[in-house]
Amino acid sequence: xxxxxxxxxxxxxxxxxxxxxxxxxxxxxxxxxxxxxxxxxxxxxxxxxxxxxxxxxxxxxxxxxxxxxxxxxxxxxxxxxxxxxxxxxxxxxxxxxxxxxxxxxxxxxxxxxxxxxxxxxxxxxxxxxxxxxxxxxxxxxxxxxxxxxxxxxxxxxxxxxxxxxxxxxxxxxxxxxxxxxxxxxxxxxxxxxxxxxxxxxxxxxxxxxxxxxxxxxxxxxxxxxxxxxxxxxxxxxxxxxxxxxxxxxxxxxxxxxxxxxxxxxxxxxxxxxxxxxxxxxxxxxxxxxxxxxxxxxxxxxxxxxxxxxxxxxxxxxxxxxxxxxxxxxxxxxxxxxxxxxxxxxxxxxxxxxxxxxxxxxxxxxxxx
Length: 368
Fold this sequence. Notes:
Layout: H1 2-16, H2 18-26, H3 41-53, E1 54-63, E2 66-75, H4 86-89, E3 103-110, E4 116-120, E5 126-127, H5 132-142, E6 150-152, E7 173-175, H6 176-185, H7 189-197, H8 202-216, E8 235-236, H9 238-248, H10 252-259, E9 262-267, E10 270-275, E11 288-296, E12 300-309, E13 312-321, H11 326-339, H12 348-351, E14 356-358
Helix pairs in contact: 5-9, 6-7, 6-10, 7-8
């Protein structure tokens, strides 16, 4: 059996080597054996590599009205490389917590008393992705901009950073109110970009106002560079984002727009239905007053929420979560833990008024 396998392998190598074919052709008519030439491994490796990079694809096309079969050489897609989030790079993913959360950062606070109920790496500034849009919405609402004004989506609103897609084509016309609605509910990036661009003074003035509002709210770990969150330079800490959530929750329009399960908007006379990026808002067992999701590779999966649990209003923040549904699963774990906080079962630390605090022992410097 082993001899058969070796013989097969040698035969294949000889078939690939042009030197062997040439030797065989010269030996025709001669008596004796053909000298075997060993396959050159570097050349064999090149053949294999070329085969892995390119392949022929059969396509059917019509030329002058006639059906024609053509073959086209196409390159294979490059393998997807693992991408470390900023939290992973800082070592936050090594932090363990009693609830076994999939989020590297977590923060839960009683909204009425400001009591911290749970925290994990809550002071580390990390990319926040589309959580940025919550500040965008807050500025638009507090500036009292005309929500009925029709805004045109332009090339300036197209994402040239991450090259994300959008259902809003360049030239689409939509009211500021509808742009705000789908930016908050469906995390529509072009809508958020158009909102910032149509602020008095343009996008630069808008970003300046975002950072000024952050300082006003005491969000000292926070910095914004755009209105959508596509840039990883939009950073904040969980403690800072809790302040933003509590402030945004005071605006009825933000509460409505962030928690609508779906909504139909009109753009240039065309009706389009959008859905909420957080399916929990449609769950009957959740009472969510405000929420926002976010994701880019550098930030991981992010979620901020205001919700009523066991008659108590709480603010939850989860950053750098691993897995598509992990941030909402972490919210579910946290809710169950809060529901179990009864006098007879409260941990000794919580009973003494001390929150559960988990921090990375070697998280490194703040990521900014």
